[in-house]
Amino acid sequence: MAEFVPHPELPPPASSVGVIGWLRRNLFAGWLNSLLTVAALYLVVTALPPLLNWAFFSADFVGESRDACDSGGACWVFVNARFSTFMYGFYPAAQAWRVDLIFGTLLLLMSPLFFKGFRYKLQLGGFILFVYPWIAFGLMHGGLLGLPVVETAKWGGLSLTLLLAAVGCIAALPLGVLLALGRRSTNMPVVQTMCVVFIEFWRGVPLITVLFMSSVMLPLFLPEGVSFDKLLRALIGITLFQSAYMAEVVRGGLQAIPKGQYEAADALGLGYWRKMGLIVLPQALKIVIPGIVNTFIALFKDTTLVIIVGLLEILGMVQNALNDPNWLGFSTEGYVFTAFVFWIFCFSMSRYSQWLERKLHTGHKR
Amino acid sequence: MKLKRISLLAVAVAGVVATGTATAGATFDAVKKKGFVQCGVSTGLPGFSVSDDKGNWKGIDVDACRAVAAALFGDASKVKYTPLNAKERFTALQSGEIDMLPRNTTWTYTRDTSLGLNFAGVNYYDGQGFLISKKLGVKSAKELSGAAICIQAGTTTELNLADYFRANKMEYTAITYDSSDETIKGFEAGRCDVLTSDQSQLYALRIKLQKPDDAVVLPEVISKEPLGPVVRQGDDEWFNLVRWSLFAQINAEELGVTSANVDEKAKSTDPNVQRLLGGEGVKGEFLGVGDKWAYNIIKQVGNYGEMFERNVGQGSPLKIERGLNALWNKGGIQYAPPIR
C-alpha cells in the first residue's frame, strides 16, 4: 500500500502560478468569465488601432492652417493654432504672463501642503484660501502697480474655468458648513427655517436657470445704466447654488457622528463653536470627503454652463473656434481636446481626495 | 422711464426743428463720454462674429460696430465686445449693457414694434436655401419634388420648408437632426438629397464636407431673413449714426471708393464723392461727428463690398455669392439713400 508522502519542496503546478496562473484566476475563471474576456479582447483589438491611428499615427501636429491637415487623421494643428485662446480667452497676449504667474504661484504655494514634515500648513492653507484670491484677482484684473487693466469681459478659456471652479469651491465650502450647522440647530427655529428654505430653494432650481436669471432678469430690475459685472453675477450664482449642495453633504457627515461625541464635548464644557470646530466638524468633514469632492468635480464640469450667459470658458472658446471660417469642420478634435483637459483636472481631484482620505484615516476603520 | 424717454425725444425733435441740427441723445452722449462702443455679438458664427487665432473678433457684424466707432471716434478699434446668447441678446440691449446689437438678428415686425428696439438697417439679406449634391444635376428648387431633405429639428426652417413645398404642390421626406453638425453628417452619408438651412449657414456647413466642391447652394431663397444692427428706441441720434455708418459703406461701394483708393478719391472732383468724404456741402455735425466720418469708416473698415468679400465672400473660406446683397444697380437689393 502506497504511503502518502508530502513533498513540500515541489513547486506548485504550473497552471496556478506565474503568468498562466494569473490569467486563469483573473481572466478565464469560468465560462462566463472567459466569454467576457474574449469579447473585451475583440473590442480592444478592433477599436484601438483605428483610434490610435486617428489620434497619433496619421494625425497632423505641425502647421499653420487647415492646409497642413491632409494625412486623413486628427488635425491637432487646429488645437495648436488656437491653444492660446483656449487657455486665456480674450486676455491680451502681452499680458498672458499674469495668468501664468497666478496659477504657477498657486501650484508652488500648494506643494508644501503635500509634505508631512511641513509645520506651517494651517497658516499656508489660510493664506491660500483667504489672502491669495485677492492677490490673484488684483493681478488678473490689473490697475495696480502700473499693470494695465484687463476687464473681466476679456477673461476666458481654461483660466476662466479654473477661476469659476476655484471661487465656487473656496466660497461654497464654508457657506455650506454654516448652512448645514444652521439646518441642524433645532433650538433656533428662525435660523433653521431660513437655512432649510435657502437650501431647498437653491437645490430645487437647475444651475442653468440660476445663471439665466442672473444674466437676463437681474439687469431689468436694476436702474438703467447700472451694470453689474457679468462674471460677478455668474460667480455669485454658482456659489449660492453650490453651497446648498455642500450643506447637504456636510449635514450627512454631521448626522453620522455618534451622539456620544456631542455629549462628550458638552461634558468637557466646550461652547457651541469650539464643540463644533474641535470635536464634531473635523470628524464629520473627514467622513464626507468623497461627497465633497464629488460636489467639486460636478461644479468643475458645471462651469461649462456659463456659456449660456455669454462667458466663454474653455468649452465656449473651443466652440467659438469651431465657427471660425478658417477652421470649420474640426469639431471632433476640439471636443476631444476639451474632454482630455477636463479629464486631467477631474482625475487629479479624485486622486487627491483618495490621498487625503488615506492620510486622514486616523480613527477607527468604518 | 417711458415718460423720460418721451420727453427726451420731444427735446430732440424740438432741437431739430429749432436749429436744424440734431441734439444728442442719452446713448450717443454716453458712448461719446466713455470713449468706446459696447458691441453685442454672437458667441461664434462663421463670417458674422467669431474670434480669430489671436482672440480678435472678426466678421461682418463685428465690422458694423467698427464702422460706428470709426465714424464717432475716428478709430475703428474703439469697440468692446460682449458675446451674447440668442436668448439674452435683446435683454442686454434693453438694459443698456450694450450700445448696439449687430448679432445676426432677423428684422421682423414683432421685434421692431414690441421690444422697444429699432433696426437701423440691413447689413446682410439672408434667407433659407438648399444645399445639394452636384451629381444630382438639379438646377432649381422647383425640381426637388420627392426629395429627402435633411433639416435641423425645431427651427423655423422646418415650417418654411413645409410652406414652400405645399405652395408649390411638391412632396418631400423630412429627415430631422438635433444639431447642425449632425445634419451635415447625415447629408454627407447620403441619408438625404438636399440640406436646408439659412443660406449664410449653408456655406459654412459646406466647408465641413470632405469634398466641398461636390455640393452647391441653389440660387432660390424661400424665406426673408434681413439681418441688421439693432439699437434701443429713444435715441434718434444714435440710431442715425448706426444707420448712416452702414449707408456710408454702401454709398462708397456704389461710388467706387475703397479703403485702398480713398485718399486719392478725396481729391476727386465728383461732387458725390466729395460729399461722401466730407470735402464739401454736407457736414458731419448733422450726425454729431467730425466731417471725416465717412472717410474714416472707409479707410479703416472698407466699403460694403470689401467688408462682404473679406468676411463671407470670395476673400474668405465661406465664398458666399453676393446674390441679394449685391448693389441695387448690380442685380441685388442693397440700396442706400444718397448722401447730400
In CATH terms, what is the architecture of the largest domain in chain A?
Answer: Orthogonal Bundle
Taking pLDDT < 50 over at least 5 consecutive residues as the criterion, the unreliable ranges of chain B are: 1-23
Query: In terms of structural class, how would the helical and strand content of chain A be classed?
Result: mainly alpha
CA-CA gap between termini of chain A: 55 Å
SSE layout and pairing:
The complex is a heterodimer of chains A (366) and B (340).
Chain A: H1 18-26, H2 31-57, H3 76-88, H4 96-110, H5 121-141, H6 157-184, H7 189-204, H8 207-221, H9 230-256, H10 259-267, H11 272-287, H12 289-302, H13 314-322, H14 331-359
Chain B: H1 2-19, H2 26-34, E1 37-42, E2 50-51, E3 57-58, H3 60-73, E4 79-84, H4 89-94, H5 109-114, E5 117-119, E6 124-126, E7 128-133, E8 147-152, H6 156-167, E9 172-177, H7 180-188, E10 194-198, H8 199-207, E11 215-217, E12 225-227, E13 230-232, H9 236-254, H10 262-265, H11 271-276, H12 293-300, H13 304-311
Parallel strand pairs in B: 1-4, 8-9, 8-10
Antiparallel strand pairs in B: 2-3, 5-13, 6-12, 7-10, 7-11
Helix pairs in contact in B: 3-9, 3-12, 9-12
Task: Provide a descriptive summary of the structure in words.
The complex is a heterodimer of chains A (366) and B (340). Helix content of chain A is 68%, strand content 0%. Chain A contains 14 helices and no strands. Chain A folds into 2 domains: 66 residues, no CATH class; 201 residues, MetI-like (MetI-like fold). Chain A has 366 residues and is mainly alpha-helical. Chain B has 2 domains: 229 residues, D-Maltodextrin-Binding Protein, domain 2; 96 residues, Periplasmic binding protein-like II (D-Maltodextrin-Binding Protein, domain 2), CATH 3.40.190.10. In chain B, the strands form 5 sheets. A 5-stranded mixed beta sheet of chain B has the order 9-8-10-7-11, with helices on both faces. The N terminus of chain B is likely disordered. The chains are: A mainly alpha (366), B alpha/beta (340). Chains A and B meet through helix 3, helix 8 and helix 13 of A and strand 2, strand 4 and helix 4 of B.
